[in-house]
Specification:
The chain has 159 residues and is of the alpha+beta class. The chain has three helices and ten strands. It has helices at residues 2-26, 113-117, 122-125, and strands at residues 29-36, 39-41, 44-46, 51-56, 59-65, 68-75, 78-86, 93-101, 108-112, 126-128.
């Protein structure tokens, strides 16, 4: 009886570990950033487009003009999206479909869409999102001791 109970407990723990491992891979949320910015890679310069519309699962998630950035959040390790590119004012629309695998352990990935459209390799158009740290100035950390503006002569009586 004890062996059977131990087998059920070990089996239950193994099933839970397997479910946790699967959920870590397929259920993890990711943020993908889309850039319409100028890029230079190995001497080749890729310019921005007039407008790029990014659609994920049939829903428009970003409408990018030159030098803009948009984003989409999703779960899973791959993102399928399509883009509509208008290269110049009054130009015709071009449509592209992409599937991108998200690297494990990366929370934010930035895709440079003009470089993708031009067919550059993945290391040229993919980068890791790093948020900018805003340093506080000394005035932001100033301690205010007289919040009502009464000054130092609060207790003095003139007479």
């Amino acid at each position: 009886m004890k062996k059977r109970r131990l087998l059920f407990r070990v089996g239950t723990v193994l099933v839970l570990v397997a479910i946790a491992a699967c959920m870590m891979v397929i259920g993890r949320g990711h943020t993908m950033y889309f850039d319409n910015k100028k890029l230079e890679y190995e001497g080749q310069e890729v310019d921005t487009f007039r407008r790029i519309n990014v659609n994920v699962n049939g829903e428009q998630v970003a409408k990018l003009s030159a030098k803009d950035r948009g984003m989409a959040t999703f779960t899973g390790q791959t993102l399928k999206f399509n883009i509509e590119v208008i290269r110049e004012k009054g130009g015709d629309s071009e449509f592209y479909d992409y599937t991108v695998k998200v690297p494990y352990g990366v929370d934010g990935t930035v895709l440079n869409l003009p470089a993708m459209v031009e067919g550059l390799p993945a290391e040229a158009y993919t980068s890791i999102f790093v948020p900018q740290v805003v340093e506080e100035s000394p005035e932001d950390n100033e301690i205010v001791t007289d919040e009502f503006g009464l000054g130092d002569d609060m207790g003095s009586v003139e007479g």
